[in-house]
Amino acid sequence: MSSDLALFRRRLLQNPKQVSALAPSSRFLARAMAEGLGPKTGRVVEFGPGTGRLTRAILAAGVPARMLELFELDSDFVRHLHQQFPGVAVHHIGADHAGEVVAPGVGAVVSGLPLLSMPAEVREAIVGAAFRILAPGAPYIQFTYGPKPPLPPETMEKLGLRVEAGPKIWLNLPPARVYRFYRI
Ligand SMILES: C[S@@+](CC[C@H](N)C(=O)[O-])C[C@H]1O[C@@H](n2cnc3c(N)ncnc32)[C@H](O)[C@@H]1O
Q1: Ligand 1 lined by 47 (C-beta under 6 Å)
Q2: What's the number of domains the chain is made of?
Q3: Does residue 19 line the site of ligand 1, with CB under 6 A?
Q4: Which of 12, 80, 109, 180 could form a disulfide with 139 if both were Cys (CB 3.0 to 4.6 A apart)?
Q5: Among protein residues, the one whose CA lies closest to atom 18 of ligand 1
Q6: Percentage of the chain modeled with pLDDT above 90
Q7: Domain extent for 175
Q8: Are 37 and 58 contacting, i.e. CB atoms less than 8 angstroms apart?
Q9: How many Cα atoms are found within 13 Å in the side-chain-facing hemisphere of 42?
Q10: Cα(72) to centroid(ligand 1), Å
Q11: Which segments within the chain are labelled E, that is strand?
């Protein structure tokens, strides 16, 4: 775990805009993100896994490795993820390209992406890609550190989404809240 932290800090210093967090998610936040997932969820896709904190929680919830696919832009994180999670597919491409390599019918998309620090058009391309592969009624799960949901109302309206807020996870640096978005 301490090597995870060292890698995270190194990549943060090299590419602060893309990594965009002070530290990897805590195990408490990771568990909240994976809540409700399990062996019956079907295929799960994760955006922006970094060192794999959420990945570990998704697998611990009972999602089989062969049912999980990751999208990560940073090549050092990609190498680390391959080593840490054998059997999990790791795509070294942006989350906005998920629809090009994943067939529709996915049971959940779990995202650790810094959505709110992205330009609106990038954010919409990413969330749009998620809902193109998600099965009807399946959630797009995203945490944020700020006081508001991680998608502005105009984006939600444009994409036809509703949101459910989870509890605040205080044991995280900084504290965060998990949101689940659904197609209306
Ligand atoms: C805030 S870190 C979260 C890491 C991890 N999920 C966690 O919770 O500890 C954001 C991660 O998203 C990745 N990332 C940023 N933009 C991306 C994109 N468009 N597609 C895929 N990954 C991206 C970064 O390289 C970084 O690993």
Answers
A1: yes
A2: 1
A3: yes
A4: 180
A5: 94
A6: 92
A7: 2-183
A8: yes
A9: 14
A10: 6
A11: 44-47, 68-71, 89-91, 108-111, 140-144, 161-169, 176-183
